[in-house]
Specification:
Layout lengths: L1 E5 L10 E6 L11 E16 L7 H6 L7 E8 L8 H13 L9 E4 L9 H9 L8 H7 L8 E9 L4 E9 L12 E6 L5 H12 L17 E6 L8 H21 L7 E9 L2 H13 L1 H8 L5 H10 L10 E4 L2 E5 L2 E2 L3 H11 L3 E7 L5 E8 L3 H8 L4
Parallel strand pairs: 4-5, 8-9, 10-14
Antiparallel strand pairs: 1-6, 2-3, 3-4, 3-9, 6-7, 7-8, 10-15, 11-12, 11-14, 12-13
Helix pairs in contact: 2-3, 5-6
EC number: 2.3.1.35, 2.3.1.1
Organism: Poseidonibacter ostreae
Catalytic activity: L-glutamate + acetyl-CoA = N-acetyl-L-glutamate + CoA + H(+); N(2)-acetyl-L-ornithine + L-glutamate = N-acetyl-L-glutamate + L-ornithine
């Protein structure tokens, strides 16, 4: 038995982890734009990355290390993705690390921002040289990695095990746009003092990604820099595999839901729950199709319970389905029931009321099996166009 309790705090609340964020002049606004995570005890590290074929230089740099390497330092910059920068992008990362006056073990760099621009090496080196590696400001770090985010994204849990031991696990992340299943335009750094084996770290990351970061969509675009990184310094000496997997799931779910809710200009966070499909794969196909559909997203923005857009997307997904078995609901309000039109004035008014909420479910009962999957999305409105029309400025 174990208990998992949410607690207040940032990554620096976890034994052995230090972090901070500063302004290095990367953002014209002068806001914080460069941060770090440091631990005096080298960490096991595992990560999952974007499936975009054009992976950014920081990802390629990470993958040059030997499998199951350890690290004690992660450097994170915003405003510049260091993507589509060729071999020079990797060389620039090495130049930065070779310029820092710290005892670094297999240092890692992570970047987010505009694609296609070389890193401003001088600004990053000057900023990083000013780091105090004993600093403890997870709040500053959370602000430094933001791009179009409306707010910082963090969470923290303490896991109490049956033998009286405990460990902590927490995360900081960024992500609001260019979010699509197969990760997102997102960076997520998860730290723990659990004594978790490296192989369990990788397994848990992959398993939990499918129902969290790989189940969200803001706009249907997949970035070049998407990263979910897990660092474990093992200082607590506490571990239970089942407890760890569940705690990691909670952390990743929290971060994924914050990203959907913060979709650039979004006002609605919606769960697309597909049930009774003939296979999990088909349920997943439909749920993700619904979370990606621009027509569905704009209907959500307009608070229009147009079930025709839902039904059309299900049929277009080419899964096994039948009008005579399909049921569509907004929360508990049924608008289509196995070939019967339920969308009269009364039901439409009830459904419209549901769509005025900030959060709700669109439930699609395929009625042909017993498999299910839930994807998460948001509405898409004028603000999204405004933000992305002038992103580089």
């Amino acid at each position: 038995m174990f208990t998992i309790l949410p607690i207040k705090g940032y990554l620096d609340q976890i034994d052995g982890f230090n972090c901070d964020g500063i302004s290095a002049g990367l953002k014209p606004s002068g806001d914080k734009d460069l941060g770090f995570i440091y631990t005096s005890t080298p960490c096991d590290v595992q990560a999952v990355f974007t499936e975009n074929k054009f992976q950014a230089a920081p990802l390629k740099h990470f993958l040059q290390y030997e499998e199951n390497f350890k690290t004690n330092f992660v450097l994170i910059n915003s405003k510049n993705a260091n993507a589509m920068t060729g071999k020079k992008g990797i060389e620039d990362i090495n130049t930065i690390f070779n310029s820092l006056p710290f005892d670094l073990i297999n240092p890692i760099m992570s970047s987010t921002g505009v694609i296609g621009n070389p890193l401003p090496i001088e600004k990053i080196v000057a900023g990083a040289k000013s780091f105090d590696l004993s600093a403890s400001s997870g709040e500053n770090l959370s602000k430094a990695i933001m791009t179009t985010d409306a707010y910082a994204k963090t969470c923290m849990y303490q896991v109490n095990l049956e033998d009286g031991s405990s460990f902590k696990i927490g995360a900081v992340s960024k992500g609001a746009g260019m979010i699509n299943p197969n990760l997102a335009t997102m960076l997520c750094f998860i730290c723990t003092d659990a004594n978790v084996p490296s192989k369990d770290m990788k397994e848990a990351l992959i398993v939990n990604s499918e129902t969290t970061f790989n189940a969200i969509s803001v706009d249907g675009d997949t970035s070049t820099n998407d990263t979910v990184m897990l660092l474990a310094n093992k200082k607590s000496n506490a571990y239970d595999k089942e407890a760890f997997i569940e705690a990691l799931r909670l952390v990743m779910h929290d971060m994924a839901m914050l990203m959907v809710a913060d979709g650039e200009g979004a006002k609605k966070a919606v769960a697309f729950e597909v049930i009774n499909a003939i296979s999990t794969e088909e349920a997943q196909i439909v749920a993700k199709a619904l979370s990606n559909s621009l027509l569905v997203k704009t209907a959500l923005f307009g608070e229009d319970p147009n079930f025709g857009r839902i039904a059309s997307t299900i049929g277009a997904s080419r899964i096994t389905c039948d009008e005579e078995t399909l049921v569509i609901s907004y929360n508990d309000v049924i608008v289509y029931n196995k070939g019967e039109l339920c969308f009269d004035g009364i039901q439409e008014a009830k459904a419209s009321k549901v769509l005025k909420n900030d959060k709700y479910k669109v439930i699609c009962d395929i009625g042909l099996g017993d498999s299910s999957f839930t994807a998460y999305g948001c509405d898409l409105g004028y603000k999204y166009v405004e933000i992305n029309a002038d992103y580089r400025t």
